Amino acid sequence: MNSPQKYAHMGRITQATRVATSGMDPRRARIIIILLAICTALQMSSYGMIFPLFARKIGDFGDGVEVLATSVMAYSLAGVIAAPFMGSLADRFGRRPFILGSFAVFTAVFTGYFLAATSWVFILIRGLAGALTAGLGPATMGLIADIAPEDERARWIGVIGGGTSAGFIIGPVVGGLLYDKWGYGPPFMASIGMALLTLLITFFAIPETHTREKRRREILTQKRAVRLAPKTGTATSASLSAGVSFMASLPQPLLAFGTLLFVNLSMIFAWFFIDPQLPFYVFDELGWSTTQLGAAISFYGWATLIGSLALSQSSDRWGRKPILIIGLILHSAQYVGLMLTNVYWVIIAAFVIAGLGEALVNPALSAAYLDITPEEHRSRAMGIKGAVGSLGSLLAPALVVVIVGTVPPQTVFLISAALILATALLVFMALRLPGRAEAARDLTWEVSQERMMAAQTALHNVTLSAATARKLKSTT
């Protein structure tokens, strides 16, 4: 008797060509990232209002470059210690608690900056801020990696960077104007109010993207990797066994990871090497007002914002490495300009070019990290990145404290320019990134192949048993 037609497919084996995974609706993902960029813009506006006033406030305490550099060191040292732990905790407990917590801390420390009565209290508050906000960067990058498609990561990282730049467009100018007219009170009050508003918007607008269910699946994936590693002997299984080896969980190849970390270190070091010197240099030697310094920072922010919106996807189209090299060369312009001229508008032009360079470098750099990092360790990798950046912002002001008074400002600017250009050369010579398709291959696909092989074997056995049973039945 013939089998019914509806069972004609029995015994046929079909090999899957892809693994279907659940994910967030693209439209909702875009809305979340845009809302986070808006919150970042508000937060950076609140910080930008008071950033140009730090040198003024320390000057009123009777101190100078050394104390400002020490406060930067306190912030950075705390960040170096806390960032890797914060990144791992964001992988374990989710992104939202660390984003909300950081915004709450900003509100508190801005109040502390305003009320600080001595330089040492100011330094202590900056140290606490560095420790308690170290999870913001890793959690933000982890959120983007959770919901943004791989081939659009640099674009959306650029949108977040654009939010940061937008904050530095408005904040420094407004803060400088308020200070020049009314003193410390109005800019600090406006800053605290905006930080509180940012916290409230984030609380209601930003959901958890690394949900408990997703974290549970990743734990099961890691356990499965440990079981499969002896059978498959593959590097992917070993690299995902995070619970077994910290080194195995790092982005691969390690040379590329190390090169990216050095890019991050050099950019942060170069800026923080001039940061304590810059306000005193422009106030005391160039005769700038607080408003003029705020305007210079604002022009830099405009350039970075426009560049982030227009150029952030450049590395998705033309590759991470060439965009990193071009961006680093452009970014050196601000240091070259400060070194060679004291003409205000020439320095502004150099800041604009440098801002465009940063708009190229930051999305390409963060996307390169994500390209080579296993999904379940992204916040950890970004925490290491943040710790290395904090190390740069720690070492640079420490060196400033040592050399201040013996090295002229132009030499400080020269050192920063040379470091950035040398980093561009290092990227050209040493950076080798794997193809993004290869970097994105993870254990999910490997495990599915194991399951497919088991299913094929089981189905073959069922088919063989059925055929044997039919033969036995026909003989009887």
Structure overview:
With 476 residues, the chain is mainly α. It has a single domain, classed as Up-down Bundle (Growth Hormone, Chain: A), CATH 1.20.1250. 79% of the residues lie in helices and 0% in strands. α1 runs parallel beside α7, α3 packs antiparallel against α18 and α7 runs antiparallel to α17. It is globular. About 5% of the residues have low confidence.
Question: What attributes characterize this protein structure?
Answer:
476 residues, mainly alpha, Growth Hormone, Chain: A, 79% helix
What is the structure about, briefly put?
The protein has helices at 26-50, 53-60, 65-93, 96-115, 119-132, 136-147, 153-182, 185-205, 212-232, 235-239, 254-274, 277-284, 290-311, 314-318, 320-331, 333-340, 344-371, 378-403, 409-430, 436-440, 443-475.
Range of helix content: over 70%
CATH architecture: Up-down Bundle
Rg (C-alpha, Å):
27 Å
Q: Please give the count of helices.
A: 21
CATH superfamily: MFS general substrate transporter like domains
Write down how many β-strands occur, each being a DSSP E stretch of 2 or more residues.
0
